């Protein structure tokens, strides 16, 4: 089954956890837990990203290319939570400032085989699936075969997700904490804890507001009351800038250390070089 989410805008805010707690109290007066995510308060997300040797996904974002795509496998939930492990293969397409996510739920091994080029395109044509599903899988194969996408990195975080009520049914608000990455390809697991490199200080999180139409007035007032400032924080680009030797060599020179030493950056290497990936913008 294919699960398209189409054409919506998003705003991001990097906020202290103390602010998050105050926001959640207000958000829960107007929104409910996301039923698509099992209707639970919080769940882990593992995202495995693919890119080519030129790091097209990273540079297209930095150049502000109007149409760009990312390929990833996402695993939601865990064996210990109310959401059992669920795997999707996804193409995230950003076009003219609006996001489209095309994805299909499938067994984890099948998603890995597809993203890593172990599937023959002729087999897809023979399978019994909808036209949209065949188009998505053909798109994945084209990224793998024609643009030579391969494994690049894995990210994890814990997400708290809300959806709007009847007055804003297209509204989605998420809070992501414990955002971490690794560039070593280990076996893909739900709720994997094998991460050492965190992208934010432990007292910070990322709040995202997504909508197809307009942000409701109660949320606009809440953002204003808390003096929140919108930021262009990309988990993928921040991880790549900090830890990918290829991009670090291009930005900082060929002799830079790709992985910062623990003693240089503190207890959880929480000092974030945000000069490139984070841009402040007007308040929503």
Automatic annotation (TrEMBL):
Provide the protein name: Polyphosphate polymerase domain-containing protein
Looking at the Swiss-Prot or TrEMBL record, what is one Pfam family this protein matches?
Answer: VTC
A single Gene Ontology biological process assigned to it is: polyphosphate biosynthetic process
Which cellular compartments is it found in?
Endomembrane system
Pinpoint the VTC domain residues. Answer: 8-241
Species of the source:
Oceaniferula flava
Its GO CC terms? endomembrane system
Q: Which domain of life is it from?
A: Bacteria
For this protein's source organism, the top of the classification is: Bacteria, Pseudomonadati, Verrucomicrobiota, Verrucomicrobiia, Verrucomicrobiales
Keywords of this protein's UniProt record, alphabetized? Membrane, Transmembrane, Transmembrane helix
Q: What membrane topology does this protein have?
A: Multi-pass membrane protein
């Amino acid at each position: 089954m294919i699960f398209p989410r189409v054409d919506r805008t998003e705003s991001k805010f990097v906020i202290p956890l103390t602010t998050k707690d105050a926001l959640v109290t207000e958000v829960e007066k107007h929104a409910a837990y996301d039923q698509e995510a099992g209707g639970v308060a919080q769940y882990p997300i593992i995202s495995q990203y693919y890119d080519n040797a030129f790091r097209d996904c990273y540079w297209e974002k930095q150049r502000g290319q109007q149409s760009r795509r990312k390929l990833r496998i996402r695993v939601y939930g865990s064996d210990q939570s109310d959401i059992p492990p669920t795997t999707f293969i996804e193409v995230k397409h950003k076009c003219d400032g609006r996001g489209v996510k095309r994805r299909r739920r499938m067994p984890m091994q099948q998603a890995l085989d597809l993203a890593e080029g172990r599937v023959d395109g002729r087999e897809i044509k023979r399978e019994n699936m909808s036209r949209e599903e065949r188009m998505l899988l053909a798109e994945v194969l084209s990224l793998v075969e024609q643009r030579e996408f391969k494994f690049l990195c894995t990210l994890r975080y814990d997400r708290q997700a809300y959806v709007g009520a009847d007055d804003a049914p297209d509204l989605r608000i998420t809070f992501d904490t414990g955002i971490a990455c690794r560039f070593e390809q280990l076996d893909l697991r739900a709720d994997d804890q094998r991460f050492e490199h965190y992208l934010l200080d432990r007292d910070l999180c990322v709040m995202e507001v997504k909508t197809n139409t307009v942000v409701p007035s109660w949320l606009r007032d809440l953002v204003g009351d808390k003096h929140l400032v919108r930021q262009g924080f990309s988990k993928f680009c921040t991880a790549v800038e900090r830890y990918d030797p290829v991009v670090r060599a291009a930005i900082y020179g060929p002799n830079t250390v790709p992985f910062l030493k623990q003693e240089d950056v503190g207890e959880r290497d929480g000092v974030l070089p945000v000069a490139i990936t984070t841009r402040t913008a007007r308040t929503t």
